């Protein structure tokens, strides 16, 4: 196995450009095993009109995500890609990255990995990454950053991610908004923005490894087109909203086969949900408003329909149906 690692590393070094970027970044990678989606988001204050934060993102549809950041080298990222494609677990990938660093100096690297196949995550922050640096994680997500304003940036990203209801894409976007602080990447303090570039990606398990992905948006505001810099996370939010935002949903086999029907839409306050087949064998129905507050929750067992009387103001809501086959999210409009 060691010989195989060495062969892969040599091939990567020969084929990849040996250029590095001081890629000081905050980022999050995560998976949703219920929908089969994996996701990646981040931002950086790197000063380049052509290189943006997205270079750290390596998405493997149906498998996981690898983030390689802090004094970025494409050779290290390509090596990590090879190891994930071989089926190694996250900690094994990080251990091998540290051992086979392209410049033999893993102390300047930072990694975050999530693996939906093994249901595992792993992180690494080298001692010589630029301060402030740290990482935090949970069972299905990893958040990491360096050259930060402080620990509060990571904590705020985690809080927004965990406390936002909705799809993986919606939660990743919320995590980035949690880091929208002037100087979140501390090199951007004097420019009055958090960063210069930001990105968000979400891949369905059916997406090609090379893309296109279910969601793939990037913003780079360096150099500015106006006297003042534009906050890239807000610009990314606009692209995200135009794409579909939190109302965009993962279409599972349930809707493709007519397993779940929701009507009428718009509704006057009464929503009918009809289910057939295995989808009726124990489901959870929840409704959220546009700021992520849950306004309705119901467990449905042993029947194939539900009549929801929603005592809520007129507006846009998001209905989520959880079953053993997956999750269906859709937008509903209440017009009283």
Question: Which key features would you list for this structure?
Answer:
alpha+beta; single chain; globular; 6-stranded antiparallel β-sheet; 336 residues
Mind explaining what this structure looks like?
By secondary structure, the protein is of the alpha+beta class. It has seven helices and 19 strands. It has helices spanning 2-15, 74-85, 90-99, 151-163, 168-178, 232-243, 253-256, and strands at 20-21, 25-32, 37-44, 57-60, 64-69, 72-73, 110-115, 120-125, 134-138, 141-145, 197-203, 215-220, 260-263, 270-275, 283-289, 294-300, 305-309, 315-323, 326-334. The strands form five sheets. The protein has a six-stranded antiparallel beta sheet, with helices on one face. Strands 4-5-7-8 form a four-stranded antiparallel beta sheet, with helices on one face. Strand 2 (25-32) and strand 3 form a beta hairpin. The chain is globular and about 60 Å long. Mean pLDDT is 86; it is low at 2-19 and 249-257.
Largest sheet: 6 strands, antiparallel
Radius of gyration (CA) equals 21 Å
Intertermini distance: 65 Å
Considering DSSP H and I runs of 4 or more, what fraction of the residues is helical?
Answer: 10-25%
Q: Which strand-content bin applies to the residues?
A: 25-35%
- Principal-axes geometry comes out as globular
- Unreliable segments (pLDDT under 50, ≥5 consecutive)? 2-19, 249-257
- Total count of strands: 19
Mean pLDDT figure: 86
N-to-C SSE string, H for helix and E for strand: HEEEEEEHHEEEEHHEEHHEEEEEEE
Assign the structural class, choosing from mainly alpha, mainly beta, alpha/beta, alpha+beta, or little secondary structure: alpha+beta
Q: Order of strands across the widest beta sheet?
A: 9-10-2-3-11-12
Compute the number of helices. Answer: 7
